[in-house]
Amino acid sequence: MNPVYFDHNATTRVDDAVMEAMLPYIQQEFGNPSSRHAYGTVARRAINKAREQVAAAIGVQPVQVIFTSGGSEANNLFIRGAADSLKPGNIFISAIEHPCILQPTLELARRTSETWAMQRLAVDSQGRVDIKAAENTMAKQSPDLVSVMLANNETGVIQDVAYLAEIARSHNAWIHTDAVQGMGKIPVNFSSLKVHAMTLSAHKIYGPKGAAALIVDKRLLLKPLIFGGGHENGMRSGTENVPAIVGFGVACELAKLREAETAEHVQLLRDHLEQGLLEMGAEIFGQNAARIPNTCYFAIPDVEGDTLVVRLDKAGFAVASGAACSSVNPGQSHVLEAMDVSPMLARCAVRVSLGRSNTLAEVDEFLKATRHTVESLRQLDGLTF
Does the N-terminal or the C-terminal CB of the chain have fewer CB atoms within 10 Å? Predict the structure, then answer.
């Protein structure tokens, strides 16, 4: 029997309908979409349809969709592409951004030949960007670029991106949001968020890995990261991954159709899960903030997160001790550090992220396994900090 999968913020199983749509473009319809013959035309039409599906899901025009290989590339395209198109200035990011925003921003700030300065927007104890502090900071040092994620991949906490966008725009700054974790879980609309650019990713919404998009305001001028044949209107050269892009389009369409149903289902499961965890003495990070409905980031004091994750995996439950994308860099979560969580408690952090296929019975079994594991570890005197 396969382990119960409770790690949907890391990635999701490809939906059957998505796989069915992709299959013809892996073998039969294998043409290069830049070719002028019939094979290429079929591939180009498939990409055009997918672009329309992605655009419709978030309320933009197809021309605003730039396909990339993943969310990391899309985020880098905004940070580096925008910076290379503007005079050096101030770039503001939240203190809880994903590494694929944090690292290119740090690299930008390290450039000795330029004068880009990075500023981090502080968050409160619940993981929300401190709006008042952001207003004050931007008033003192006018921003040129701003990037604030819509929903955090660890805590699930939702940010007031639209309000932050108004502040950024009042300073004539460009603002971007990484909406990878929001899509399919909460309503996501480009115009409502008032941003200039947005990142989406297929494999977080039951689509394939290897396809994502940067959505851009039509007035935004970015320099490409990848030069070559001028694909994606010159913004991202390289032969398009047709099967993955086709799957991305279908996944976006399905995510929009199922959004309310999915949210209601996973919210029910999470409420039940958190009730059981609180009865065990767990602390839930961001509990009092608005969160995407599928995510629970918790800690049971004196039970190390990595140890609990390994034990639960052996018991048949796949969960995470943090962000899968940063697992190569072990250590305290920078998100929890920004929330001023004590290092001892942060070491105990475990993330459960639920999906459409999960059930209440699975949650009950998880709670039993967690209770048993915690009792077993405490009998072994737990951790030595």
Answer: N
Among residues 277, 54, 285, 256, the alpha carbon closest in space to that of 153 is found at 285
CA 290 to chain centre: 16
Of 100, 252, 296, 325, catalytic: 325
Q: Which amino acid is at 239?
A: T
Largest CA distance in the chain: 69
Number of H-type helices and E-type strands within the chain: 12, 12
- Which domains, ranges and CATH numbers included, belong to the chain? 4-12+259-379 (3.90.1150.10), 16-254 (3.40.640.10)
For residue 185, give the 3-state DSSP assignment: coil
252 belongs to the catalytic site: no
Interstrand relation of 317-318 and 4-5 (parallel, antiparallel or unpaired): parallel
Cite the DSSP H helix spans in the chain.
16-22, 38-58, 71-83, 99-110, 131-140, 161-170, 190-193, 242-279, 305-314, 334-338, 343-346, 360-379
- For the stretch 267-326, pLDDT in tens is 999 999 999 999 999 999 999 999 999 999 999 999 999 999 999 999 999 999 864 454
Q: What is the CA radius of gyration of the chain?
A: 21
Q: Please tell me the distance from the alpha carbon of residue 264 to that of residue 119, in angstroms, as a whole number.
A: 37
